[in-house]
């Protein structure tokens, strides 16, 4: 019974996330399921089975969906009921600041600093690394990127 509840809760959560990311999964000819499947490199049937509450995605499908939907794999695994937060604890630095405040998102500049890239080479690192980010930055919905 818990598995059915986990599937329902997970599917409801991921549906909202898919819509937030700009995929039209509501209209029959919207193409959102196919676009999401293509972007994630998974079969459209896996998306359909999840959204119809027929089956939970396997680990590799979750990893691919997490990347495309820009959520941590950990969140996918916990929300799907595959693991509990205690079974998959956050690393000490990922849980926020010690004073309870939220941690700032990692920037390329901060990544260069954390990687120990010399100050004189950080600008070049940022230019090169930024070429691997999605067009318009990570928050842009997929529908706008393709236009």
From TrEMBL:
Annotated ranges, domain HTH cro/C1-type: 36-76
PROSITE patterns, A to Z: HTH_CROC1 (PS50943)
Region of interest called Disordered, as start-end residue ranges on this chain: 80-102
Domain of life: Bacteria
GO molecular function: DNA binding
Entry protein name: Helix-turn-helix
Species annotation: Streptomyces pini
Cited CDD domains: HTH_XRE
InterPro entries: Cro/C1-type_HTH, Lambda_DNA-bd_dom_sf
Transmembrane spans: none
Listed SUPFAM superfamilies: lambda repressor-like DNA-binding domains
